Amino acid sequence: MPDTILVVVEQREGKLNRVSWETLAAGQALAAETGSTLEAAVAGNGVANFANEVAAKKVAKVHAVESPKLEPYTPDAFSAALKQFIESKQPKLVLMPHTYQVRDFIPKLATAMGRTAISDCIGYKKEGDKLLFTRQMFQGKLAADVSFASDSPWFVTFQNGAFRGDKVEAGTGVAPIETVNVQIGDGVIRNKPQEVFKEAKQAVDLTQAEIIVSVGRGIKEQKNIELAKQLAEALGGELAASRPICDSGWLPMDRQIGSSGQTVAPKLYLALGISGAIQHIVGMKGAKTIIAINKDSEAPIFEIADYAVVGNLFDIVPPLIEEVKKAKAGT
Amino acid sequence: MKILVCMKQVPQKDAPLKLNESGTWIREDVSYEVNEPDAFALEEALRQKEKHGGEVVVITSGPARAQQVLREALAKGADRAIHLEDNAFVGLDALNTARAFASAIKDETFDLIFTGLQSDDYGYAQTGVVLAELLGWPHATIIMQIEKNDAGIRVKRELEAGYFQFVDMPLPAVLTIQSGINKLRYATLIGIKQAKNKPLRKVSMADVQSAVSENLQKIERMYVPQKTKNTEFLEGSAGEVAKKLVDKLRNEVRVL
């Protein structure tokens, strides 16, 4: 019998997380290359709609893992439910998107099963019979190909943007859906989650900005933000920042780009003194053009930049502002 | 409250990294610093102790150099430290690191264990959650606020895209702390002096050997990532670079 690859898609707040399609696309590609059977699962309370949505794609079967105790999300319940299901199913490989929810429970799930998860992967390689999963190390400065040295099931999570969600193949028919009712005992769930909320209304919607000038640690001091602001104004763009800048209170949180902030895809993203930590990159790599100015020639931001300047931003930005103003004035 | 803070020493953010001969790890002759989220985890533990009393214990694993992280933590106000000292700890996967920690603290009782939400070297974001499972404790990840109450604690979890959630949970518990949860303090001169006399317990690999296994995952090779983009490097004086950039903005990016 061929091995099974199981993709666990993510539903949250009544919606299928779109990054699930990326993981499903990865699963389809892996199944084709390894001659495995691809199945999918969605866990929650009343997930038939999500199962239906996934069953329209090219998968052999969809499992709706159901329990009233799966709502609201808790790591205890999700780990218990998926452990029951995966132990009975025994897939070779279990794939999930590397979301905040998955990273909250997958280490617990894998440990409870005596297994391991290779987390936050950006791709895979098949070398002979061996599967290698590629992850970023040292904040993206290096990459590593990692293999499993233990028994299956093997758990893997894929980073947001690692695969193309729009490349998911539709099925020729509708895949069968199997409901799996899991039992979660009293006392298993220890956390009591409250309602999900947003801190404040976002004053700035950076997702609509055509041009974004973004600052990172390289700006050094709060007073230097003014320089970036002047460049943003000269270009007619919005000012944004990486997480450490907002953590320091130098710019409000609603100007933060990255996994914990906004995800943007402007026409131009100009990164000043941003090294390009993974958490930042996932929020802006969809930009049409990326210009990076950084003094560290090995900064990971240069890996994804279209135009790169290795140098001191305090030397380059002032004449750049002048040149932009001149260009705008038509001289 | 008695709080254990798991800390890690990682290469400095802008340290130039070179691969070792076998291409499976970096050459270790670089400058190191404390993993940034761990510094916030320590700060939060110190603040909780200031509010509620108790003890703050810091733990790390790694060769002799890693002791620097513990010394800094003691200088900032941690009460004592545990050092799992062996170069072999550097190569352990998240499960085995957590197993080694669990073994090293088996005779202690803590109310809370903090870790940073992930490390800047491996970036697994797993050790804290794995440790919770090994201890049989509840956990919560990416924490931005902690309030003690009669039943236990209420924590604020950060979710994606600007969303948050409060979670009530019993103690003992493991929390992974997000950067920016607080403002870091500096060590004082008195603190640095006092740190020298604070207890630091060393644990050898032999002490925890029975708890760890072969790694469950293996780094086959490490390398400089292949560029997916054709990056054009613009060079020259600041003035020349500014002119070149404007030329690109006008003729290629077409935003001017």
Mean pLDDT of chain B: 95
Quaternary form: heterodimer
Radius of gyration of chain A: 22 Å
Instruction: Output the CATH topology of the largest domain in chain A.
Output: Rossmann fold
What is the count of distinct domains of chain B?
Answer: 2
Please count the beta strands of chain A (DSSP E, at least 2 residues each): 17
CATH architecture of the largest domain in chain B: 3-Layer(aba) Sandwich
Largest sheet of chain B: 9 strands, mixed
N-to-C CA distance of chain A? 72 Å
Give the full name of the CATH homologous superfamily of the largest domain in chain B. Answer: HUPs
The CATH superfamily of the largest domain in chain A is identified as HUPs
Structural class of chain B: alpha/beta
Number of helices of chain A: 8
Q: SS-based structural class of chain A?
A: alpha/beta
Strand order of the largest sheet of chain B: 9-8-7-10-6-1-4-5-11
**Tell me, what's the shape of chain B?**
globular
Written as H for each helix and E for each strand, in order along the chain, the element string of chain A is EEEHEHEHEHEEEEEEEHEHEHEEH
CATH architecture name of the largest domain in chain A: 3-Layer(aba) Sandwich
Question: H/E series of chain B, N to C?
Answer: EEEHEHEHEHEEEEHEHEEH
CATH fold title of the largest domain in chain B: Rossmann fold
Q: What Rg of chain B is obtained from the alpha carbons, in whole angstroms?
A: 21 Å
